[in-house]
Amino acid sequence: MPDAEKSQNELADNLLSLHQQINKQANYSMIATEEEGIVLQLADGTIQAGNTACERILGLTAEQLMGQTSVDHPWQSIREDGSPFPGETHPAMVALRTGKPCLNVVMGLYKPNGQLVWLLLNSQPLFMAGGTTPYAVVTTFSEITESANIPLSASLTEQQTEYQAANISEQDTESALRHNERFELAAVNCLFYDWEISRGTVERTQGITALLGYTQQEAEPTQEWWQQLVHPDDLQRVNDEFKISLANGNGYKIEYRMRHKDGHYVWLQDRGFVEQDAEGRVIRIVGISIDISDRKKTEADLRESEERIRLATTAANLGMWFWDLTTNELIWTSKSKELFGFAPDTTITYELFRNRLHPEDRQRTDEAVSSAVAQKLDYNIEYRAIWADNSVHWLAAKGRGFYDADGQPIRMMGTIQDISEQQAALRERKQAEETLRQSEENYRFLADTIPEMVWTRDAKGEATYVNQRWQEYTGLSLEETLGYGWRKVLHPDDLEISAQLWTEALQNGTPYEVEHRYLRAADGTYRWHLVRGLPIKDDQGRVVKWFGTCRDIHQQKQIDEERAQILEREKAARLEAEAANRIKDEFLAVLSHELRSPLNPILGWAKLLKSRKFDEAATFRALDTIERNAKLQIQLIDDLLDVSRILRGKLCLNFAAFDLAIIINAAIETVKLAAQDKSIEIDLHIEPNVGKVLCDFNRLQQVVGNLLNNAVKFTPAGGRIDIRLSVGMGQAAGGRGQGGQGRISTLAAPSLPLPHPPTPLSTYAEITITDTGKGISSEFLPHVFEYFRQADSSTTRNHGGLGLGLSIVRHLVELHGGTVTAESPGEGQGATFIVRLPLIEESSKQQKENKTEAENISSLPLAGIQILLVDDEIDTREFMSFFLQQHGATVSEASSASEALEAFAQSPPDILLSDLGMPLVDGYSLMAQIRSMSPEQGGQIPAIALSAYAGESDRDRAFAAGFQKHVAKPVEPTELLALIIDLLG
């Protein structure tokens, strides 16, 4: 098909080029009009259909054209030189004969009225699918005008003849034929159809199917497809009218509705001819369909308009009259006669009409009629009619004159309406208005003297008056406020509700009340006002005007808003307090459970060990259980103390540069046994050269330990925990001490810089801990780091704890300048915790020193170090002395402050470890006495306080007394060892 289009386009271009050359040689130009006629002819040349433009251009109706041929047409046609144009050379006949298009033929044609028109014709043969002989031809033509009336030369005539019979190759012809198989003409949007009865097929042009919204492919070539689209109400009528048309001849014209593809109906007019065989049977129907929807709509609108006029005149109690000015004949409807008190059969004359008028109105009516006719104005007058019973009736007459081509009046027509009631009402209204005017004078004087803003509006709702107070407040004058000018000072947000309530009040005639804001001219602020309006009604209950006031309630509104805010805050505080109390109660219940639970195995095993002897294995199991539960209680107490310090901002950190791998390994050791008991596999992956972080070793180990404890606790037996240490780049931390929580002490390492949040492109260490445990629900995930929050707070929960571990983790990480986040796909799908901490940059020298220090910590004995251990509890002294001696220290013991002072007098030690809660003289007093000694006597000795008093105030008091370090009992040996090494340098 594209090749056929290309071939046809090239053919059209060649013919157009030849035509332009001919016109150029002859100095002859023609301009075609935009309107184009279309004619359909069958193979025998008979015209079957034509469009509206065809009728106008040729001067013949479609009925006159149908059945004619181009050979014996009833008009005279000529060539450009004036010679006759033989019918057999007509483009349509040439196209039928040759089977090829005949294009751009110029013809002169005399219409029936003798007018000569010049036409430019194009004829296109049509073929059935697979056929080679045309079965019809479509001719399109446009009217053209000459720019120079110069006869064409003989040579031009020859060239034109040659042009008409242009040598079109067989290939081009075949291509054009294929392109036009189903009436799809490139240059013409045809609306034709051809129904072959014998074959049961209907060929339709694309124009017809497109008119109904269908493509050629969607339309079925059957009559049944067409009939099912006909409006059900029109189908029988169409069949009946078609039969009647056949009875009167071969032509038909039918109008009906067709359903468009989108569902609406289109009015069509079918015109065409019916071909019958010798026995009178219909064998073929060829016609054209025209869209007449616009005309039908116009007709429907006209009928509707006429019906509205009839209904309106009846409803309005109108009479109508017609006056022929040429014959002086008056025609009145029965209603008009009734309004004048005449009998229905009365013959009306102008004199009879005039005599029925009130004597005072007759001359005025004559003048109104004369003036309307002479000046071509509408006739509009009110007068009184005096009936035979002397009753007076007010009537309103309206009319209009009509004139001939010379401007002479030929007739008048108009209406008459009884307005007696309106006139009576008008008199009453005027009287009421006068009364109202006098009343207004009185209240306006009163309105200008009161402090409130006063206004009035008419029955339509438009402002008619405002008092002086309004003008002073708004800065608008009376003229600026009238109508709806008052809206200029109304707050924009209040306009909609104000208009809505005002419309409802107008419609219902009910009082109007609203609160809105007006702009105060003095300071440019909006202030709240209570606006009230009352309708003033007449005796019939009709609103005649509105009276209203505007009272300033701005201060009261502020008080109400403040009260509402206070109530809202109180409500929120109450809900918050209730939630806090609920959480507190839940926490206390959990705390009681968690503190009491370890006591049961401790006390139970202790009694059993005292009352009987066990073998070595049972004894070890009992001691192990006691130790484990004691440590559990210590952890619970430490968590409580840590949270207390965090909430009061009293948590102290001792910073130093550490390798995170050491901290992670130390934390793993604390959970290894618990993981082994549950057969949980712990996989550790550490990237090389991660670097160091500035941190408090113990606190950061606490962070990792808490996360690992959680992972072990919530991972079922046979599970897995993956730990990964890596380096990242970007914004790692949220800032040290976020939210005002925590403070950092650097007493232990005054020369080291404090950690700072990394820059947007800084490097950070990332610790990722992933487990295959129970996971975290999406509802609880946002609260996982909050205080006293647990996903399961019931008494039947499967896992212990106070719900403080993760909140402590978050604060400790933030105090190190880092961030911690939690992720989980959902319950039963495990969880991942990610800790990010800023890395520090170290020089090669510092790295070497740190490496040496780390080696010393891991293998350093306290050889040669003299330690004085002061504690009134012998068990503590024995354990501590044994541990320190194992690391090479020489330990002297003292059970009281006095024994400690005697030891100092004999030989001052290298370091002092002293309990605080001793009888008689406590550790604080002992430290004060030692600090009062000279350096030679040991007054500047490094000292560590050992105490079961682990509160923040106890720690501060120890530092104030002179201790450099404070260790809470029970003492963690490795922690004590690190502190001793740190103090000794």
Strand content: 15-25%
In DSSP terms (H or I, runs of 4 or more residues), the helix count works out at: 29
Characterize the overall form.
Answer: elongated
Calculate the terminal CA-CA distance, rounded to whole Å: 98 Å
Count of strand segments: 33
Quote the average pLDDT. 78
Biggest sheet character: 7 strands, mixed
What class would the helix/strand composition place it in? alpha+beta
Describe this entry's structure for a reader.
The two termini are 98 Å apart. Helix content is 41%, strand content 25%. The protein has 985 residues and is α+β, with helices and mostly antiparallel strands. Helix 26 runs parallel beside helix 27.
List keywords for this structure.
985 residues, seven-stranded mixed sheet, disordered N terminus, alpha+beta
Briefly summarize what is shown.
By secondary structure, this protein is an alpha+beta fold.
Q: What is the element layout, followed by pairings?
A:
Layout: H1 2-26, E1 30-42, E2 47-50, H2 52-58, H3 62-65, E3 76-78, H4 91-98, E4 102-110, E5 116-126, E6 136-146, H5 154-164, H6 170-179, E7 192-196, E8 201-204, H7 206-211, H8 223-227, H9 232-248, E9 251-259, E10 265-276, E11 282-291, H10 293-315, E12 318-324, E13 329-332, H11 334-339, H12 350-355, H13 359-374, E14 379-386, E15 392-403, E16 409-418, H14 420-447, E17 453-458, E18 463-466, H15 468-474, H16 478-481, H17 495-508, E19 512-520, E20 525-537, E21 543-552, H18 554-596, H19 599-611, H20 616-648, E22 656-659, H21 660-677, E23 681-686, E24 692-695, H22 697-714, E25 720-729, E26 763-771, H23 805-815, E27 819-823, E28 831-840, H24 844-859, E29 866-870, H25 874-886, E30 890-894, H26 897-906, E31 911-915, H27 923-931, E32 943-947, H28 952-961, E33 965-968, H29 973-984
Parallel strand pairs: 23-25, 29-30, 29-31, 31-32, 32-33
Antiparallel strand pairs: 1-2, 1-6, 3-4, 4-5, 5-6, 7-8, 7-11, 9-10, 10-11, 12-13, 12-16, 14-15, 15-16, 17-18, 17-21, 19-20, 20-21, 22-24, 24-28, 25-26, 26-28, 27-28
Helix pairs in contact: 1-5, 1-6, 19-20, 20-23, 21-22, 22-23, 26-27
